Amino acid sequence: MDRWGAKYTITFGALVLATGTCLFGWGNEWLAGLGRLMQGAGSAFAFVGAVYLAARGFSRQHLATAVGVTQYAGMMGGHGSVHRGLADPWRAQLAFFLD
């Protein structure tokens, strides 16, 4: 964060996350595993960037709430793939959220 700043760190994390999501959706078991790994790494970069921005934008009084909401949003994003199982096709997981 100190070397590249939040803009580049969050952008890099989002690109890694998006690439991992595409790999996960292709259905090949090996690529799905690699995609899941990339999703975790990209989310970690994005979360660190979000906490960095929250620390600069929120007062100490509201910082814990902002970080908690960010963590909650990240956990709810992964909720479907963990509870539906990696064996389900990605279309079934998407249908779970769209129904």
Distance between the termini: 39 Å
Q: What is the total tally of β strands? A: 0
Could you name the ranges where pLDDT drops below 50 across 5 or more consecutive residues? none
| Class computed from helices, strands and strand pairing | mainly alpha
Total helix count? Answer: 4
- Dominant shape: flat
Rounded mean pLDDT is 79
Which radius of gyration do the C-alpha atoms yield?
A: 15 Å
Number of structurally distinct domains: 1
% residues in beta strands: under 5%
Largest sheet: none
Order of helices and strands: HHHH
Range of helix content? over 70%
Report on the structure:
- By secondary structure, this protein is an all-alpha fold.
- It has one domain.
- Helix content is 85%, strand content 0%.
- The protein is built from four helices and no strands.
- Helix 1 runs antiparallel to helix 2 and helix 2 packs antiparallel against helix 3.
- The longest helix has 29 residues.
- It is flat.
- The relative contact order is 0.12.
Chain-wise SSE layout:
Blueprint: H1 5-25, H2 29-57, H3 60-84, H4 90-98
Helix pairs in contact: 1-2, 2-3
Task: Offer a concise description of the structure.
The chain is mainly alpha-helical and 99 residues long. Helix content is 85%, strand content 0%.
